[in-house]
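no rush on this but wanted to send it before i forget. what follows is a protein written twice so to speak, once as letters and once as C-alpha cells for the fold. mainly i need to know what kind of three dimensional shape the backbone takes. thanks a lot i owe you, the record is right below.
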Amino acid sequence: MPPKVETFTPLDVMAPIGPYSHIAKTNGFIAISATAGVDPSTQNLVSDDVASQTTQIIKSFASMLATVNSDLAHILHVNVFLTDMSNFKAMNTAYAAAMGEHRPARTAIAVTALPKPGALVTMNLTAVEKGDP
C-alpha cells in the first residue's frame, strides 16, 4: 500500500488563495506551498518592501514546520520567486538573518507576477521531520 499523504493548513497562517493546502506530509517529508509575506491576523501583506515580506515568510515557515515536528534547521530546499531581481540582495539579507546559520539548497526565479496582489516575493520549501518529538 502506498504511503498516505496528509494535507492541511494550520489556522495561524495566511489562508490559501486557491484550491490547495499549505502543508503536505508523508513518510517524514514535508512540502510547504508558496507563501507570501502576509500577517495571518489581518491576511494583508506585512509591508510593501521585500525584506519585511521575506522575514514574514520565514516566520510563517517556522510556524508551519512546528505543526509537523520540524523546524527551519530541517529544510532541504527553498524556491524563491521574485517579481523583480533588483530585490535579490535585500531578500538575501533578510533571508540570511531569519534563517540563522542553516543554508539549505535554494533556487531563485524571477516571475512577472504573483497570485497575492502586491507581493514582491513568495517562497515554498521541502523539509524533513526532526525525528521523535
User: Anything to note?
Assistant: The radius of gyration is 14 Å. Helices lie at 50-66, 88-99.
